[in-house]
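Retro notes (design track)

What went well: tokenization of the new backbones is finally stable.
What didn't: we kept losing track of which sequence belonged to which structure.
Fix going forward: every design gets posted as structure first, then sequence, in one message. First example under the new rule, 386 residues:
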């Protein structure tokens, strides 16, 4: 689907934006024209949160783009009821310019601003409903998409709870052992350590799932066979097995088994309302005896049947498992890809990026240059330093 060659869509957009007409071919615009008299309005970002959609609208109605300049991504010139105007995407947002030689009063200029933005809002709603949602779905299915890299943020959440557990087990936690009703918490260190450990485990698996999704384009992933959205919908174990096939590498199997045990003992029970698998938290009734755990003697080692479910030794073992996995990812299984992820750069899934990444991964030095180049492009775009 090519939006810009869709004549019916162009006609529809032109109908909505009917007062907007092309300007003279030699019109210099306003954003980069020094001394040209103009009214300048900041366009509300809440009304137009995606400047790219505004750009698509102006392309469809035939407005002229003056291109990039310092701190300027684009500027479209047009006439509104015969008055020269332009819409510019500058470093700090969208700006609407109106020729002040044709419209001298601020009130009249404000009225034009209100009319232009109102029509743009109508066009934006229509474009998104009629075309962009379907177009977005098609692009994502084909892997022509970017996923925001949230690795640092998710890792900080994990580290926050981990630090909380360390402080709690060392007696420096913030949990008050005295309860409001006059009672006391039994073993406040272990109790607060348990709370933070559960939070830490949940945060780590969230980080792990995000990392596995970001690793995907650095593998043999092919969107023609399996979509990114389908991959995201799988559980962490299925994601892990696809990125690191267990049958091909004994270390992958070892890491998976370790993580699986941690997930079963410290994550799954508390992530699903406190209920373990196979009735792990159920007790059956036996007359004359009382309530007996459904897991029978397998209760040994089940954290949810302990008075303090996690102690300092349990916490240390979990940390060791996570540290070992992190080290394995960074040093052995995904050396280059983890460098990209830790750089904070977003990840792309289209064929061009996957091909370039595959070539760059032939050597760490080449891959470092690959990261440096994309970091430069990202900084250039963010600062509009063209």
């Amino acid at each position: 689907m090519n939006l810009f060659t869709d004549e019916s869509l162009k006609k529809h957009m032109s109908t909505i934006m009917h007062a907007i007409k092309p300007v003279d071919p030699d019109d210099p615009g306003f954003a980069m024209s020094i001394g040209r008299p103009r009214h300048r309005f900041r366009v509300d970002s809440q009304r137009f949160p995606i400047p790219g959609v505004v750009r698509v609208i102006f392309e469809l109605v035939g407005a002229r783009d003056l291109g990039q300049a310092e701190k300027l991504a684009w500027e479209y010139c047009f006439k509104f009821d015969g008055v020269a105007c332009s819409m510019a995407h500058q470093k700090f947002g969208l700006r609407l310019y109106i020729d002040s030689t044709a419209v001298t009063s601020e009130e009249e200029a404000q009225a034009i601003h209100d009319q232009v933005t109102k029509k743009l809002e109508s066009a934006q709603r229509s474009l998104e409903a009629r075309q962009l949602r379907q177009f977005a779905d098609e692009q994502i299915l084909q892997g022509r998409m970017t996923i925001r890299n949230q690795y640092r943020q998710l890792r900080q959440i994990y580290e926050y709870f981990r630090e909380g557990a360390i402080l709690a087990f060392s007696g420096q936690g913030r949990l008050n052992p005295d309860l409001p009703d006059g009672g006391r918490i039994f073993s406040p260190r272990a109790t607060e350590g348990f709370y933070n450990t559960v939070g830490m485990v949940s945060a780590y698996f969230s980080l792990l799932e995000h990392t596995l999704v970001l690793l995907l384009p650095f593998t043999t992933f092919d969107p023609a066979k399996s979509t990114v959205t389908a991959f995201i919908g799988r559980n962490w174990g299925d994601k892990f097995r696809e990125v690191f096939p267990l049958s091909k590498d004994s270390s992958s199997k070892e890491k998976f088994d370790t993580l699986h045990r941690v997930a079963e003992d410290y994550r799954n029970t508390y992530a699903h309302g406190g209920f373990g698998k196979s009735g792990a938290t159920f007790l059956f009734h036996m007359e004359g005896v009382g309530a007996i755990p459904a897991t029978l003697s397998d209760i040994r080692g089940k954290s949810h049947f302990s008075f303090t479910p996690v102690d300092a030794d349990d916490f240390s073992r979990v940390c060791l498992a996570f540290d070992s996995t992190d080290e394995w990812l960074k040093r052995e299984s995904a050396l280059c890809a983890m460098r990209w992820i830790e750089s904070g750069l977003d990840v792309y899934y289209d064929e061009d990026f996957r091909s370039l990444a595959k070539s760059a991964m032939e050597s760490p030095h080449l891959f470092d240059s690959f990261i440096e180049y994309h970091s430069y492009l990202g900084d250039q775009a963010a600062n509009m330093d063209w």
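Added context from the reviewer: The chain has twelve helices and ten strands.
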